[in-house]
Amino acid sequence: MQRLSRDQIAARVAHDIPEGAYVNLGIGLPTMVGAHLPHDREIFLHSENGLLGMGPPPVPGEEDEDLINAGKQPVTLLAGGSYFHHADSFAMMRGGHLDICVLGAFQVSQRGDLANWHTGAPDAIPAVGGAMDLAIGAKRVFVMMEHQTRDGASKIVAQCSYPLTGVGCVSRIYTDLAVLDVTPDGLAVREIVAGLSFAELERITGIPLIDQPLAR
Fold first, then answer.
1. Which residue among the candidates 48, 62, 200, 202 is catalytic per the annotation?
2. N or C: the chain end with fewer CB closer than 10 Å?
3. Residue 16: which of 142, 135, 137, 109 has the closest Cα?
4. Under a CB-based contact definition with an 8 Å cutoff, are residues 93 and 137 in contact?
5. How far apart are CA 143 and CA 97, in angstroms?
């Protein structure tokens, strides 16, 4: 079994973003998606700090310290891109104007509940940012994460034990082992990495899964 690298997960997410989509890339792993978007598609990237029309990361040495995303990383701006007030940005998020948001997660439940802002640990620093607004406001929520914690526990769970960001908001989960869709019947496995069986993925995940690969 060969787990996907973070860049490979990002490329897989980018593959599913359609022409003309308005997309927010969350802080952390999701920001990597911007570097893998197909060049033949017009996709509008939004950042909650007040940007629309972000381009790929800048060439080293050509960073503009005044042009950053919500994670304080340097970005570029495409022709026609715009800056606007933070409040206007959140109005876009809350008003249902984003087609997709890509978020990281600590846990995702089998019914699509998302926990990505706080582990509940006494020494943890909570960092919700705009995650709650994005999780509920975007038309589709993609989660991008490693399948397991460093201790080997599955991040996909029957029920989240961490404080929730949103209830039933996740549409699709991309991990280093699989792509899964949240359906009314449970989590449907659409893709599995080479060398990993469905039975082994189900064992690693620890909850019942549905074997429904995407048609090729």
1. 48
2. C
3. 142
4. yes
5. 19
Q: How far is residue 203's CA from residue 182's CA, in Å, rounded to a whole number?
A: 18
Catalytic (active site) residue 63: no
DSSP-assigned states of every residue in the chain: --PPPHHHHHHHHHHTPPTT-EEEE-SSGGGGGGGGS-TTS--EEEETTTEEEE-SPPPTT---TT-B-TTS-B--EEEEEEE--HHHHHHHHHTT--SEEEE--SEEETT--EE-S----TT-----TTHHHHHHHSSEEEEE--SB-TTS-BSEESS--SPPSBSS---EEE-SSEEEEEETTEEEEEEE-TT--HHHHHHHH-S--EE-PPP-
